[in-house]
Amino acid sequence: MGKLEFSLDQIDYQILRIMQENARTNNADIARELGMAPSAILERVKKLEQKQVILQYNAKINPDALDQKLLSFIFIKAQDPIGTQKVGLLLAKIPEVQEVHDIAGDDGYLIKVRTNDAAGLVDLMRNALGKIQEIISTRTTIVLETVKEEQKLVIPTED
Amino acid sequence: MGKLEFSLDQIDYQILRIMQENARTNNADIARELGMAPSAILERVKKLEQKQVILQYNAKINPDALDQKLLSFIFIKAQDPIGTQKVGLLLAKIPEVQEVHDIAGDDGYLIKVRTNDAAGLVDLMRNALGKIQEIISTRTTIVLETVKEEQKLVIPTED
DNA sequence: AATATATACAGAATAATATTCTTTTAATAT
DNA sequence: ATATTAAAAGAATATTATTCTGTATATATT
């Protein structure tokens, strides 16, 4: 068969490690750090992008700077037609919703939402969520303080 | 007093919008897109970094490519000395733990964890979490499928 | 109002990088 | 053995980043 094949070597891992730390590290610097030619690194990076190992490069913006002070997680119980994720896709369309996960157990979703404040959250629930008929109930968890928030993956080492 | 002052204008927002889409967009391209000189854009980007509006640039790596197929959220009930977040800091040190949020309600944390598989999760709970004495109980939610996972913020428009 | 002071930006010059192409080497297949 | 492929070095050129200078505009000071 052959679904998706990655097959990364140690050099790829090192590139990923560097990119994960600072996605704007330039080619020449990566090359220097790994003791290789820039052209070789360029090829590898392009290949990593093509193979969808690197999905995208994003800037992490301070939510406070955009006055988005409230982070919440909401469990959503919904009656999706079996096997579909209609509700999930609708939820994903809401800009304030950063994550939508289909979770095991009581046929539901867990979503992560960022709003200006409590009023913004109420708004979102009333308007955006309110429009989705299939939603049966919700349970909201408010975040008081975030201690860590990264999406860095653990990259294997050679041993 | 004066905590942190941001104060961003429309041009800053546009830069953030571009950077949020692709953090490797180069200076010259941003300048072209906004119809400004590269030197002006460079100044602004540096200022955004200094002011901690842009916190970092990261590459989003495909978890599957690193064989990290299991995503879980774990609610952790813990008895932290009041006002401290000792447990939170200990949790944050675990590499597989991508997020640690101090949540309202039953003095607990919500963490987001990525492991290879169920065995990896069990391992982590037994070893890493097991070592933290203050943890009273945990409740784990397994993600079956992720519909959306971004950290893009909603950037204000001028109207 | 007149004069400083600071800020944002353009434009030009130069340093550094990206990108492309060619060649070599090594690994793998035939 | 002999192709074939993949990875990478190295060189040449196209693009960018970066620094510096000058100018306009706003903001403050007296």
Q: How does this structure look, described?
A:
Chains A, B: This is Lrp/AsnC family transcriptional regulator. Chains A, B: It holds the Pfam family HTH_AsnC-type. Chains A, B: Keywords: DNA-binding, Transcription, Transcription regulation. 2 copies of one chain form a homodimer. With about 160 residues, the first copy, chain A, is α+β, with helices and mostly antiparallel strands. Helix content of chain A is about 30%, strand content about 30%. The first copy, chain A, has a 4-stranded antiparallel β-sheet. In chain A, α2 packs across α3 (about 40-50). The radius of gyration of chain A is 20 Å and the shape is elongated. The two termini of chain A are about 30 Å apart. The mean pLDDT of chain A is about 95. Chains A and B meet through α1, β1, α4, β3 and β4 of A and α1, β1, α4, β3 and β4 of B. β3 (about 95-105) of chain A pairs antiparallel with β5 (about 135-150) of chain B, so a sheet runs across the interface. The first copy, chain A, binds a DNA duplex (30 and 30 nucleotides) through α2 and α3.
Short description:
2 copies of one chain form a homodimer. Chain A is an alpha+beta fold and 159 residues long. Chain A has 2 domains: 10-50, Winged helix-like DNA-binding domain superfamily/Winged helix DNA-binding domain (Arc Repressor Mutant, subunit A, Orthogonal Bundle); 63-142, Lrp/AsnC effector binding domain/regulation of amino acid metabolism (RAM) domain (Alpha-Beta Plaits, 2-Layer Sandwich).
